[in-house]
């Protein structure tokens, strides 16, 4: 995909200006001189309603609402914010798009915007302004929200990095001084941990965020849902190798992962039931801020690492992407764009990144300068989640088909069926192939 060409990520963008650090530790970004702040003129009597996903870290919603209050104080525009689980935002957003009524702004996940692009307000002017001012949008943001290469159908908000979260002491007890860098060594580690009675666990239910490890598994062995021409190719020798590997890995899992949704591995890890999982920084955040002394003590033992590299010989990172969509039916399009501009400016966005404790990696290059990434060395692995993100519709062009296939958990279901033994790998691949072809119609 041309939009996912890293060499183009600074195209049309100003260079990132240097950040300076005050004695208090707060970072101040100096935008490029030619990128002066613009403002959209809100409609008279404007009121806004925002639907967003529920927080996984308390500091996220606390700072977000402070920023909302600051916007209202500045503009006089009342903003109502509704919070729903990831799995609930998607259907509510679809209903709003199809009925032409509901929230003015929706914060959703992955490429949901491509399910109804004609129902979304064109925000190209705002996206280009922010890109020029803050060092450029990363390639994956272009791929998700500028699918035709011309018009922006939404704004990137960031990404919750799907990194490996593990107990350092338990890895050492199993004979590993560092987290493995290859899939072969990863399997050996998982087997050793299982033998020690400290198993790993990865979600195999319809988990919007934590189920993304299944993309990594398939890609690591060279498999993919579709090729560059959007032809479905999931039934392949490469996918078969991934699933055969997955069967060996699944044998080391704690029981019950077939029903795990996004909260389950957090609970299992903090309960001491598992030694490693894939997750955002929310597990570490919860441990650091826990009022339970035993859980708080665990924070020092928690470490983060990237997923190991498979036979393809390169990282294949899949992270949960967050978007911001303005619905075309809104009565207050200028107010909506002004709200998003305000929320994305450094003065609001950097405190939000900090408040969220590194849970969200930013979609704009300038925010690599945020002090949140260096204030705690355990935060740093999450910084480049958007920068290194491979879109879920790889290797094809994103659009309705990729969004629909992702929302239908085709890859996750295939992996769950094959590695658990409920279907043979071949049967699971064939079923996934047929399901995907319903979306990717020739």
Quick overview of this protein structure:
This protein has helices at residues 58-75, 86-99, 124-133, 139-145, 168-173, 183-195, 213-220, 237-250, 262-270, 282-288, 293-298, 333-344, 346-355, 400-407, 410-420, 425-439; strands at residues 19-21, 27-29, 47-53, 78-84, 105-109, 155-160, 163-167, 276-279, 302-305, 320-326. With 442 residues, the protein is of the alpha+beta class. It folds into 2 domains: 34-161 and 319-382, D-Maltodextrin-Binding Protein, domain 2, CATH 3.40.190; 163-317 and 408-439, Periplasmic binding protein-like II (D-Maltodextrin-Binding Protein, domain 2).
Helix content bin: 25-40%
Discrete helix count? 16
Please give the order of strands in the largest beta sheet.
4-3-5-10-6
The CATH topology label of the largest domain is D-Maltodextrin-Binding Protein, domain 2
> Helix and strand succession?
EEEHEHEHHEEHHHHHEHHEEHHHHH
Low-pLDDT regions: 1-28
The Cα radius of gyration reads 21 Å
CATH level 1 class label of the largest domain: Alpha Beta
Quaternary organization: single chain
Domains (count): 2
Structural class: alpha+beta
Largest sheet: 5 strands, mixed
Distance between the termini: 19 Å
Return the average pLDDT rounded to an integer.
92
CATH architecture of the largest domain: 3-Layer(aba) Sandwich
Number of strands: 10
By CATH's scheme, which homologous superfamily of the largest domain applies?
A: Periplasmic binding protein-like II
| Beta content | 5-15%
């Amino acid at each position: 995909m041309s939009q996912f060409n890293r060499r183009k990520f600074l195209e049309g963008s100003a260079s990132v200006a240097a950040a300076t650090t005050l004695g208090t530790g707060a970072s101040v970004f100096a935008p490029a001189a030619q990128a002066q702040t613009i403002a959209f003129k809100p409609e008279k009597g404007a009121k806004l309603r925002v639907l967003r996903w529920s927080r996984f870290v308390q500091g996220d919603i606390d700072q977000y609402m402070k920023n909302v209050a600051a916007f209202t104080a500045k503009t006089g525009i009342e903003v109502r914010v509704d919070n729903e689980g990831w799995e609930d935002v998607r259907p509510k957003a679809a209903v709003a798009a199809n009925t032409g009524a509901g929230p003015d702004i929706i914060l959703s996940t992955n490429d949901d915007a491509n399910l109804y692009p004609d129902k979304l307000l064109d925000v190209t002017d705002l996206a280009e302004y922010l890109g020029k001012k803050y060092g450029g949008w990363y390639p994956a943001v272009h791929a998700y929200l500028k699918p035709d290469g011309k018009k922006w159908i939404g704004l990137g908000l960031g990404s919750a990095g799907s990194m490996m979260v593990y107990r350092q002491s338990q890895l050492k007890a199993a004979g590993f001084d560092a987290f493995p860098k290859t899939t072969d060594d990863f399997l050996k580690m998982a087997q050793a941990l299982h033998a020690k009675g400290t198993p790993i666990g990865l979600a195999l239910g319809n988990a919007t965020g934590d189920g993304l490890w299944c993309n990594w598994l398939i890609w690591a062995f060279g498999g993919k849902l579709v090729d560059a021409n959007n032809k479905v190719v999931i039934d392949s020798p490469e996918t078969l190798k991934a699933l055969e590997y997955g069967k060996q890995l699944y044998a080391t899992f704690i029981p019950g992962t077939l029903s795990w949704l996004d909260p389950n591995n957090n609970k299992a890890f903090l309960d001491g039931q598992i030694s490693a999982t894939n997750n955002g920084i929310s597990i570490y955040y919860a441990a650091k801020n826990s009022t339970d002394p035993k859980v708080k003590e665990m924070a020092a033992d928690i470490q983060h690492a990237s997923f190991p590299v498979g036979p393809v010989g390169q990282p294949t990172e899949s992270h949960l992407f967050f978007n911001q969509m303005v619905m075309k039916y809104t009565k207050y399009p200028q107010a909506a764009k002004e709200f998003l501009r305000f929320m994305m400016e450094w003065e609001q966005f950097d405190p939000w990144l900090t408040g969220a404790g590194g849970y969200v990696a930013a979609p704009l290059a300038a925010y690599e300068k945020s002090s949140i990434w260096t204030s705690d060395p355990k935060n740093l692995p999450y910084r480049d989640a958007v920068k290194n993100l491979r879109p879920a519709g790889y290797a094809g062009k994103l659009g309705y088909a990729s969004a629909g296939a992702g929302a239908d958990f085709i890859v996750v279901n295939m992996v769950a069926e094959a590695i658990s033994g409920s279907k043979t790998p071949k049967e699971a691949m064939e079923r996934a192939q047929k399901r995907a072809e319903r979306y990717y119609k020739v």
